[in-house]
Amino acid sequence: MPSRTAGQDFLKGLWQENPIFRQMLGMCPTLAITNAVINGIAMGLATAFVLIFSSLLISLIKKVIPNQVRIACYIVVIATFVTIADRFLAAFFPPISKSLGPFVPLIVVNCIILGRAEAFASKNSPGRSVIDALGMSAGFIMALLILSSIREVLGSGTFLGYRILGDWFEPWVIMVLPPCAFITLGILMAISLQIERKKGER
Amino acid sequence: MELVTLFIGAILINNFVLHYFLGICPFLGVSKKIDAALSMGVAVTFVMSITAVVSWAINHWILIPFGLDYLQIVSFILVIASLVQLVEMFIRKTSPPLYQAMGIYLPLITTNCAIMGLALLSALKNYDFAEAVVFGVGSGFGFTLAITLMAAIREQLELADVPKPFRGAAIALIIAGIMALAFFGFSGMIK
């Protein structure tokens, strides 16, 4: 691998290797909880917390973990941080924890985290792993924000709970229901591919 | 009667893929050929049924009596991971043809959020033993139905002239959306 600067480690998560649009990882929470912006933000931050701390810990203890059982060790580390995040949300933000439902515990099987642990944190220094995790989290939060903004504005005419479209606007209820999660993400993905193709032509 | 309703509900209405958005990765990844999709579906149904039983037992006999509910996440994921490993070894010894058909999909199931989701949802909804098993088997069938239908559509799609940026993942997501819309039609079936 060619050596990269810290900036590149961070930036690649935003676009080049964006977990959702490029790598198609972590699709389940992306689709399920983006019906309101606040859910998207909470989910993004919870995932970011788990991703950053598990990347840090895994890259610190990577020399101690025997190669054969590394996946099991990663899972235990990740599950520990997910439990912390889950309990924290349940204690301090009960309504958010309720509306996210089983998707907070499900961060444990979010492939972004295990994917980064295996592909990056297990091979690189703690500092670089944290920067990489920060970049990936930023990319993930960005994608969640875009998707949930579109769905909340069109689906209920509000943004973060505040009404931004006037009374003339009849909310497209379908946008907050499951089918349009798939369709909106499909269209966004096509747009991102089109941008990439245009870049390639130049 | 309630169990029948729960079973049909788990297949058609609260379909794991189209309603709960669980198991999207294999749903998009292994739905290019019908037979592969069907084997994946069978493997998932199989593991889901066992997981439903085992996670119920752990939750009700160990975690709740000792007040350890906060260990749910860690214990479920470990149980699922070791269960998948055991099932894989068992099938390899007892039935090589079945292993040939399902083999490569089994390790993938560990990180399938549908399995973990099943364990968590049935703990969350406080199902009793019979309900948990019926929910597990029904959800497995629902997953199989969705992924097989998806594969059938995508096989036809090979011949279609899809606009370039939509090829691959994007069109698959839009098809999934239309399927979810179609499945919405079932939601009036039970109360």
Describe, in plain words, how this protein is organized in 3D.
The complex is a heterodimer of chains A (202) and B (191). Chain A has 202 residues and is mostly helical. Chain A has one domain (7-201). Chain A has eight helices and two strands; from the N terminus they run H-H-H-H-H-H-H-E-E-H. In chain A, strands 1-2 form a two-stranded antiparallel sheet. In chain A, helix 3 (37-60) packs parallel to helix 6, helix 3 runs antiparallel to helix 7 (126-156) and helix 4 packs across helix 6 (111-121). Chain B has one domain. Chain B contains nine helices and no strands. In chain B, helix 3 runs parallel beside helix 7 and helix 3 (34-63) runs antiparallel to helix 8. Chain B is globular, with a radius of gyration of 17 Å.
Q: Keywords, please?
A:
heterodimer; A: 202 residues; mainly alpha; two-stranded antiparallel sheet; 8 helices; globular; B: 191 residues; 9 helices
Q: What's a quick, concise take on this entry?
A:
Chain A has 202 residues and is mostly helical. Chain A is built from eight helices and two strands; from the N terminus they run αααααααββα. Chain A is globular, with a radius of gyration of 18 Å.
Q: How are the SSEs ordered, and which strands pair?
A:
The complex is a heterodimer of chains A (202) and B (191).
Chain A: H1 6-14, H2 27-32, H3 37-60, H4 70-92, H5 94-100, H6 111-121, H7 126-156, E1 158-159, E2 162-163, H8 178-201
Antiparallel strand pairs in A: 1-2
Helix pairs in contact in A: 1-7, 3-4, 3-6, 3-7, 4-5, 4-6, 6-7
Chain B: H1 2-13, H2 24-29, H3 34-63, H4 72-94, H5 96-102, H6 105-109, H7 113-124, H8 129-157, H9 169-184
Helix pairs in contact in B: 1-8, 3-4, 3-7, 3-8, 4-5, 4-7, 8-9
